[in-house]
Every structure is written in structure tokens, then in C-alpha cells.
């Protein structure tokens, strides 16, 4: 019996570039950076003063002050992105989705802003003054649960916390659910709102972040010789995924197909990738095989491309190992150059970008790539988008802990 084909019928996003899919896509193909000086808190005591913040989002206005105060920002963003995705898929947001719909969300940290506030209150005012909602705000599965409650999702639910691979794993596990007939539809995606003083301070302590405070929009420069670290970002992206049969029966528009998924663990180091991207190599090969493709059929790669010295070099080496000489022919880009690193929300965002790249026949650029690293010598689409008809795209996501998640998408 052949496995069911899995399609994407709805997209929703809120991220540093824009608060909907259309404006996000236009921003990406025009090389628009969403990175800038932090406005949400005082950065005077921090070595890094910039990030990819969500802009023009007022949770009180969007969902009402009473509901907004119950949720961490990461959950607020999840509900916002889910609403757009459901409407885009032509689903009624006023009706419960029911038991034949599942939900899988990825996040790296969960409600870190609420965690920090609870600890601060405990230290300054004592246990009796902690917000009674603190636990439900800070738990990593809060977004999954809150979205399920909001939209009546009664099927299986998972929250995946594999660091920066989390929402790529979420899309992959959603694919498996649908393919194996567990449910017909899954709301899959990721969320993160880690642009807090403590989080930025902690990442800065391990020298993972760029310190280019003078030129924030130019700070994230994947594959460039002068790169000095990643840029923190925040946001949520949600995909409505369903069986092809379900989509056809609903008369839904199909963006593309989730064709392959590969996941591995480096088992090497808690932060550094395995030398040569060994775990990434196996994950890419698994995803290609799962999609029933050969290396000659992959047209585009949305790279993990964090702008850290270790990742970009090792990801490049891994791509060369998987594709051999063909690696030099494949179009590649890192959209993190424009959004910063959305951590656990990054995989879902880049899955969306990969699908839109196939659908629209335009490859978004890697901006700020002006002085290529000699060890990073592939086709990274520097600074300007390229129009090109494509059939197949791969999206790479790698996370602290040695987690690797790779997705393959097909146009039809």
C-alpha cells in the first residue's frame, strides 16, 4: 500500500520582516532586513543591543487585554500565525477543528520571558507574589495547548523542543502522522520569543552572537568571511498540512508537497556541530531517500546558514559530501540573513520560504554576502533574488544538542 501524499494548504506567519505571508515574501525577495536595535527593553548593560524583533504587534489589541495577560508572547504569536494559516486554508476559525486534526509545534525555549519575570518577582518580592499564571505561561507546550484550545484541535498533539531544529522536526512529524493515516490534517509550526535581556546576555556569554551593534542590518552575514555570530530573532510560522485526498475533497489550494523528512543526532557536542557536518549529511540523505529522489533532483536548498563560523563551514562541507560535484550547481540561500535566527521557530519559517520559492519561481537572496569565505564556495544567491523555475527544495535545520532536521518539498 502506497503512503498518502502530504500537502500544504495554508500558511501563516509573524516575524521580524512582516506580520503576514504576503508582505514577508515580498520583503524576502527584495532583500529587506528585519533586524535592528532592540526597542522592547533597555540594552545598556548588554554587549549586544540588536535583534530581529516582531514589530507593530499589540497583543492587547489583537486578542483583548484579559486574554493577552494569560499568555507568554510566544503563545500570542502562535495564535496570530495560526489564524492566518487557517484562513488561508479556507477553514472556518469559528468552528472546532475536532478529533481528525492534530497539532505539532516546535520551540527552543518556550515562555522564556514569563520565566524571567517569575524568577525576578520571586527574588524581589517573594513566592507569594508570583503570577498564578506563570506555570502555564512558561511551560514549553503552552503554545501547542493554547492553539488547540482556541481552535478546537482534539487530535494528537506534540511539542518538540530540539532547539533550532524543533519546528523542522514538527513539520516532519506532522508529515508522518498524515502519511500513516493517524489524522487527515495537522496544524504544524513553531514559535519563539527569546529576544529578552537574559537570553541575549546568555548567548553573548558563549560568544554565539554577532556584536556588530553599529550596523545591525548588516550583522547577519551567512557564509561571509567576516561573519561573527548569529542574530537573535523571534516569530511564529504555521503550516496547515493535510493528505492530498483531504485537500482535493475540500477544494483547497495546494502550495506544494512535503515529500521527505530526515532526522539525526550528532552525539558529538552540546553546541558545536560534528566535524564536516556528519550528522547533517545523514539527515539530508534520509530526507532525499524518503522523498524518493536522487541528488540530481534537488534544485534549491534553504540553508540553516546561521552566520556562525562553525555552522556555515560545516554545513557547506556537508552539502558537498551529499551532492558531490553537483553541490556547486545547486542554488542555496540563507534567509536568516534577513530575519535573524528564530531558534525553535526557524524551521517552520524556512519550510514556508522553501514552499513559496517553488510556487513563485523566485529564489530569495542571502544578503550581506560581500566577502565570501574560501571554505564556503557554493551558490549562495548573494544579495539579489533570482527568478528560476524549480521543482524540488530542501530545508536544513540544525540545533544545539546535535539535532538535525531536514525537509524536502516538491512543487507537484
Descriptive account of the structure:
The chain has helices at 21-29, 59-63, 65-68, 73-88, 112-125, 134-138, 142-151, 166-179, 197-205, 244-250, 278-290, 309-323, 336-339, 346-360; strands spanning 6-14, 36-37, 50-51, 101-106, 157-160, 185-193, 234-243, 256-265, 300-302, 331-333, 362-363, 386-387, 392-399, 403-410. The chain is α/β, with parallel strands linked by helices. The protein contains 14 helices and 14 strands. It has two domains: 7-256, Thiolase/Chalcone synthase (Peroxisomal Thiolase, Chain A, domain 1); 262-410, Thiolase/Chalcone synthase (Peroxisomal Thiolase, Chain A, domain 1). It is 34% helix and 19% strand. The two termini are 21 Å apart. Helix 4 crosses helix 7, helix 8 (166-179) crosses helix 14 and helix 11 (278-290) packs across helix 12 (309-323). The strands form three sheets. It has a ten-stranded mixed beta sheet with strand order 5-4-6-7-1-8-14-13-9-10, sandwiched between helices. The protein has a two-stranded antiparallel ribbon with strand order 2-3.
